[in-house]
Amino acid sequence: FLYFIGVALHFDLYPGGNMQISGQRKKQRGATKPPSTSNDQRGVATESTPAARDTAPPPPGAAGAGPTRHQERLSAVAVANTPVGLPTAPTPAAPIAPVSVPDPAAPFTVDALLQHVTAPMSSEPEPPYTAAPGPKGDGHIRMMEPALAAAATVPFGSIARDGGAQLLHVLNKFGFAVVADVLQQEELAAVERMWADDLRSIVDVGSCKDEEAVKALLEDPVHRWPMNKLPLGTKFASDWGLPQGKAAWHCRAHPNVRATFAAVFGDDRLCTGMDNVFFSNVPSVPGSNAAQLSRLWPHADQNSAVKPSGRFECYQGVLYIWPATEDTSATVVWPRSHTLVYPQLMQRGSFKRHFCMLSGSEHADFARNARRVTVHPGGLLLWNSRTVHQGWPGGARLAFPICHEPASRRDHNALARKQQVVLDGMPTTHWASLGEVHRVASKDSGPLTADGITIRHAAHTICVDSSGALKREVLQFL
Hints:
- Residues 22-71 are annotated as: Disordered.
- With 478 residues, the protein is an alpha+beta fold.
- It has helices spanning 2-13, 18-30, 39-42, 69-80, 110-118, 146-151, 157-162, 165-174, 185-201, 211-219, 221-224, 246-253, 255-265, 337-340, 342-347, 363-369, 412-424, 472-475, and strands spanning 153-155, 176-180, 270-272, 278-280, 299-300, 315-320, 330-333, 356-357, 371-372, 380-384, 389-392, 397-402, 404-406, 448-450, 453-455.
- Helix content is 32%, strand content 11%.
- Strand 14 and strand 15 form a beta hairpin.
């Protein structure tokens, strides 16, 4: 009898005993669980590339990891065993949780990107990306922050040491990478001389009316070329046979360039794309791009609905002869868009070819999260063809778009198309395996005259022998 009275008094004085603990746990089991740590906070991602291999998520207690079950139990027991009626320390107010969708820019901050690139690869799914709607229009794109640019840069020399492992890791994580020092200083000067020869080759000296103007132009065609009066193409140097000229082929066939792509694919049997040349001799004005607005046309160059190439891993690049800086033209990339943005882009299912534009309502997101990439002379900017990107016109530029793919992807029909493209002096899209003529190429190859100077479609003739057939040194790369 006295025993039962003691038990009753115990629970009267200390309702936080075992009965209260049991009730507290029931409440906890029925309560809403706190949101789990996102993939981005843990710094993990899914990449459908060969380098996305098995690694575990952060261990409990590591930076970014949530509380362990043991820690949760200890917390519950501590709360449950607080005697009711005794003074307790006031509980600090919990921060108000946001009720809107997560900030779409969160995975794209510099800190988040730097954490992401150092985290191990994982097979866990990416968190869904939600665009922040905004108005369509021109926008300003910032230069890439130095810390992010450094994390995305891979020395060319590392490829020989690790077989391209570091390069592939950065490509998988960011969707782009900069391979530094692919060409050395003396080679850069040689390419510029070749480009000068290509420009000289399209000047029809015999048809020119102004001998003095022709003489001045031929002395330094790279810096004196009248781009407005004698345009080399509509957007790029796409006409007059220049995409099949001496400089373009030297860059495509350069051993270091091919070694870079061979390391990415693990295959040195490659075929090459024959894209346009990026050239502008408009002088760069210091500070002119600091707040410049430019037309936004963010896009990915891969459509997963196109079979079979839509399922390929494809990497395209630009080899810079002149630097890309804050005062020059440059390439813009959206880091991590190949995994966070591209899947949503493909869900629309409205694209017919390998050119997929973001909607106008996503331009604000692109302008906020994309960056112009700094590339030193001789550097090769590479990006996954699923990465959202665009060009940025803002000053001088001499650079050569380059893409190599495993030759096993290219069929006989594509090879025949590519041979004809070279003979015609036309550019292709970046895809090395398809041989599709680029849409910006002019179909009118007739001569053009301005201010007594006549130019013609002729730069591609260096690819043809005296019999009119393609040279073997060109055929081997197609």
